[in-house]
Amino acid sequence: MSMLTPPGMGGKYRITGDKYPRMRRTGGRRRIVLAIIASAAAIGLIGWGTLELIHVFSGTDKASAAGRSARHCDRGGPGTGTKSGARPAVEAKPLPRPAQITVNVFNATPRGGLAKNTADELKKRGFAIGKVGNATKQYDKKVKGTGILLGAKAAADTALPVLGTQLAGAEHRTDGRTGGEVDLILGTRFKDLAKKEDADKALAALAKPEPTSTPSGEKNC
Questions:
Q1: By 3-state DSSP, what share of the chain in percent is helix, strand and coil, each rounded to 5?
Q2: Cα distances (Å, whole numbers) of residue 99 to 12, 77, 90, 96, 114
Q3: Alpha-carbon distance 221 to 215, whole Å?
Q4: pLDDT the model gives residue 219
Q5: Are 129 and 122 in contact (CB under 8 A)?
Q6: CA angle (26, 28, 29) in 5-degree steps
Q7: Which of 24, 84, 87, 127 is the most buried (most CB within 10 A)?
Q8: What's the pLDDT tens digit per position in 17-54?
């Protein structure tokens, strides 16, 4: 009987050779892995719940954002009309009628009679006509475009835009004059005034500009 054979076993359970039965762990590693996964899931749920509670109590949820937007509109923020607290919009200067604008017409081209013909047409369209003749040496044969509209600084957003509806592509300039008259200096590319129907449409659009669109990212209240 071998020395490894337990007493009383006899030869039935004899252990021979150099190989011995080994004891294996039954599912211990699997239980450890499952426990780790369960712990990670629990920690994740706790973290998510905590984050949601922070959002609710700090006012960053959608309802709070909507409330802030409404309060912003009430204070007169961007996109508001005439809500309480809103700063009044700066009104544009009223545009003068053609009859209120006196135009001096000067010819800076070699073509004769151009200033008179243009002045006559402007008069038919309701403008008051002042001086008519050749351009001064400063501009004579030096205006390469269709023309130059010249007036006082105060006319930059009043009389000059109105007169500009009659001549497409004309350059707008201001000088140090104090009077209300404006000059139309005809250039070498001048052929004729804009068609009356086109000029009337441009004048109507100038008198009633379209409202500006809301900037990207802002909502109207």
A1: 35, 15, 50
A2: 132, 41, 26, 8, 22
A3: 13
A4: 53
A5: yes
A6: 120
A7: 127
A8: 555 555 555 566 777 777 788 777 777 777 676 666 66
- Compute the C-alpha angle 120/123/127, nearest 5°: 145
Q: Cα angle vertex 195, ends 127, 98, to 5°? A: 15
- pLDDT per residue as tens digits for the range 93-113: 689 999 999 999 999 999 999
**Token couple for 38:** 């369960």
- Model pTM? 0.57
Q: What's the pLDDT at 33?
A: 72
Structure tokens at 113: 């009679």
The model's pLDDT over 50-91, given as tens digits with 9 standing for 90+, comes to: 666 665 556 555 545 455 555 554 555 554 444 444 444 545
Q: Please compute, for residue 106, the number of CA atoms within 13 A of its CA located in the half-sphere on the CB side.
A: 20
Residue 88: alpha-carbon gap to chain centroid: 21
Q: Which two tokens stand for residue 109?
A: 């081209």
Distance between CA atoms of residues 22 and 5, nearest Å: 16
What is the amino acid identity at position 135?
A: A
What are the Cα distances from residue 204, in Å, to 90, 183, 213, 220?
A: 21, 22, 20, 27
Phi, psi torsion values for 113, nearest 5 degrees: 80, 0
* CA pair distance 100, 113, nearest whole angstrom: 25
